[in-house]
Amino acid sequence: MPSLRERQAAFQAELLAAAAPGAAPGLAVYRNNLRGNLALVLRLAFPATQKLLGDAAFNALAADFCLTHPPRDADLHRYGATFPAFLADSATQARLPALADLAWLDWSVHRALHAQDAPPLDPASLANAPETLVFLPRPSLSLLTLRRDVRPLWAALLSGDDHPPADDNIEQIALLHGPEGIEMHELDQTAFSLAVMLASAVSLEDAASHAGEDAASALAQCFTLGLFSFWRDAQS
Amino acid sequence: MGAPLAAGIGLRLPHHQEFLASRPEIAWVEVHSENYLSGPAAAALERVRADYPVSLHGVGLSLGSAEGLDAAHLARLRALAQRIEPALLSEHLAWTGAGGTHLADLLPLPLHEESLEVVCRNVLRAQEALGRPILVENPSTYLQFAESSIPEPEFLTALCQRTGCGMICDINNIFVSAHNHGWDARAYLRALPAAAVGEYHLAGHAPGEDEAEGLLLDTHDRPVAGDVWALFQTALEMIGPRPVMIERDARLPPLSALLAEAAQAQSMLAACGGDQHALVA
């Protein structure tokens, strides 16, 4: 008799494998549950992407994704972080060039909506901060580089309006949960690079040095938008 | 603290706003723990908890996992329980994945001495972390394992005896599994540890199609079936009145429809000695 560990590993492998002819009807129920449950999770996290693709194409891509990238966490709100990259590598991306950018935007909004957010940093708290300080980003913050500006397309898909084609302009966006809901702010190149470095725990001293003479105005932009919640001394 | 000896409903996210606005006359509610681990949903649940007893019903702890429990997930459930102070805490006799994978479903266990030891170990660990006994729900299953050697009610009885946990008696799950495996549902009920039953669940099911033709599926997408109401009456007579909950997870009807089903359950409970004062308006 197989051990329980062996039995469970084998059962899971059967569920994630292609359907075998003649398999027990009960196994088909669990296989269908797996695909259906995870497609629903992805549909809720990627609503605009689902509308762009339509039900059939979305469900087919979701089924492929969930079998090759099954969840690693029981909190299914966290499932789907790699779905945009999966879509970017899919054949469908060539037919729908806005697909992956739209999925990144969907995922960033989903993340922000479920984040246990913290209030923005009070700049006055920096009065006695050391030069080696590092910032902690707001939990809802995503810093996105979109190869196309898909924001009008995203909004139109969700509202059911006729949607425009995605703009070819590259956009660098800070997306977070603000007091009135989801906020999306365009950042210039210097402010975006500074924000990315600071959000990656690069010290303010090093990030400002990298940003050059525009560092002060870039930092002011980050503070005005409330991108960070706390600071700490990197050396403590 | 326990749930009132009365009927409650499963509260799902699409009903939150209406529920909070209308404050319906219902004795208690149950939610899926994993939907409230963070973010605004947890804050909304706190507002519900201010006025109603809340039961936390988990679907992701994987009590049947041979690899043991996920410590991070258990810690999140503990934090949620500390925040909500639930009337009841419950999980399932099932596993959800192996090797760190989580398959988002309640998967069937072979029932034998090794799996009983595994589930007991996991339940004891969960109870230690959560600081209280939990209830473990009997599953609906669509296949059985050749190596199983312990009938499901006996497995649950031994689990309750060895760990001090209680159990949810899911009437629909018994009905579905009895159909799928040719069990006698009344004999199943008779074999359960009545004193350990802390809650009943009632839900809808559907016939399987295509490859699943001939099976019943625990779909939670329609009202409780007449046969399940009848089996609930049998359970009330054999086991006695307990808190009972109407579960609906798909094709959600208006909140009023769930409350009407809860009223029916409440009437049956009251006729059997449940809380007369908790009748749904």
Measured between the Cα atoms of the first and last residue of chain B, the distance is 24 Å
Low-confidence stretches of chain B: 276-281
Oligomeric state: heterodimer
Number of domains of chain A: 2
Give average pLDDT of chain A, whole number: 92
Topology pattern of chain B, helix = H, strand = E: EHEHEHEHEHEHHEEEHEH
Q: What series of H and E elements makes up the topology of chain A?
A: HHHHHHHEEHEEHHHE
CATH fold description of the largest domain in chain A? Outer Surface Protein A, domain 3
- Tally the beta strands of chain B: 10
Structural class, from secondary structure content of chain A? Answer: alpha+beta
Helix content of chain A: 40-55%
Largest sheet of chain B: 8 strands, parallel, barrel
Looking at the structure, the CATH topology of chain B is TIM Barrel
Question: What fraction, in percent, of the residue positions of chain B are helical?
Answer: 25-40%
Treating each run of at least 4 consecutive H or I residues as one helix, how many helices of chain A? 11
The overall average pLDDT of chain B, rounded, is 95
Strand arrangement within the widest β-sheet of chain B reads 1-2-3-4-5-6-7-10
CATH architecture of chain B: Alpha-Beta Barrel
Give the termini separation of chain A.
55 Å
Strand content of chain B: 5-15%
Kindly list the characteristics that best describe this protein.
heterodimer; A: 236 residues; alpha+beta; Outer Surface Protein A, domain 3; 2 domains; three-stranded antiparallel sheet; two-stranded antiparallel sheet; globular; B: 281 residues; alpha/beta; TIM Barrel; eight-stranded parallel β-barrel; 9 helices; 10 strands; 39% helix; 14% strand; disordered C terminus
Secondary structure blueprint with pairings:
The complex is a heterodimer of chains A (236) and B (281).
Chain A: H1 4-16, H2 25-45, H3 47-53, H4 55-68, H5 83-88, H6 92-95, H7 99-114, E1 133-137, E2 142-146, H8 151-159, E3 171-178, E4 181-186, H9 189-199, H10 204-211, H11 215-224, E5 228-233
Antiparallel strand pairs in A: 1-5, 2-3, 3-4
Helix pairs in contact in A: 2-4, 3-4, 3-7, 3-8, 9-10, 9-11, 10-11
Chain B: E1 7-10, H1 16-22, E2 29-32, H2 39-49, E3 54-57, H3 71-84, E4 88-92, H4 113-130, E5 135-137, H5 152-163, E6 166-170, H6 171-181, H7 185-191, E7 197-202, E8 206-207, E9 216-217, H8 226-238, E10 244-246, H9 255-271
Parallel strand pairs in B: 1-2, 1-10, 2-3, 3-4, 4-5, 5-6, 6-7, 7-10
Antiparallel strand pairs in B: 8-9
